[in-house]
Specification:
Elements (H helix, E strand, L loop, with lengths): L1 H25 L5 E5 L3 H15 L5 E5 L1 H9 L6 E3 L3 H9 L9 E5 L2 E6 L14 H5 L4 E4 L5 H12 L3 H4 L3 E4 L2 H9 L5 E5 H6 L3 E6 L9 E6 L8 H8 L2 H9 L3 E6 L4
Parallel strand pairs: 1-2, 1-3, 6-7, 6-8
Antiparallel strand pairs: 3-10, 4-10, 4-11, 5-8, 5-9
Helix pairs in contact: 2-11, 3-4
Amino acid sequence: MKRRTMIGLAVACLAGLAPAIGTAQAQPKELVIFAAASLKNALDEATAAWVRETGKPAPKISYAASNALAKQLEQGAPADIFMSADLDWMDYAASKNLIRPETRVSLLANRIALIAPSDSTAAVTLAPGVDLSAALGQNRLAMGNVDSVPAGKYGKAALEKLGAWDRVKDKIAQADNVRAALLLVSRGEAPLGIVYTTDAAADPKVKVVATFPEETHPPIVYPVAATKDSAHPDAAGFLTYLRGAGPKAAFEKQGFTVLNKPANAS
């Protein structure tokens, strides 16, 4: 009799817990965003505002080089939104059927700059024929990987256009992403580096020596899209939010230019 009573109590307890368990399981997982490392400051601010305004859980954001993120998507890493620092890696994701093309927007534009530690006296004019090797001495120029990281690719293109690449190509400290290149200069481990102007603005330990002329490299465009496999109910709403006034202010505060153009716009 005692055993039947205990079993009955256990069943009753489980029955009482069932609605709570069901409610917990019904809650959607957090929104997952794969974003270029250079977006960190601005996107952190924009998502914090989104959380305050909507009351929704904070998104989980993975920051890395665009090439690394695209490859992770290709390997099956779960994400709802992909924000790339260049068109090439978004095009790559599209070619692998990893994004929803109809959601793709060219959201932002950026610039690249030559930076130095904040106490540096380096003076360089980024004109044709510039020789950075003289300013580097025996040290290295910090850049993102010039074959895969967008900021590195833009930097190499600009140096080639200016006729400066051949004199510095053996003096490059290549980093896994643009923020890692920024850190090398910020710590004084490299006397010069090439990063986005927005990265330079985010670190008080560095200063801009000169900004590369826009005609020396392809346009720096940041596209964003929902991933093909995302079923998160907030993905579409968050993409719409990114194109609004609040995030625009956050992006411009960090030095981005807001484009907000559909992928098929001229």
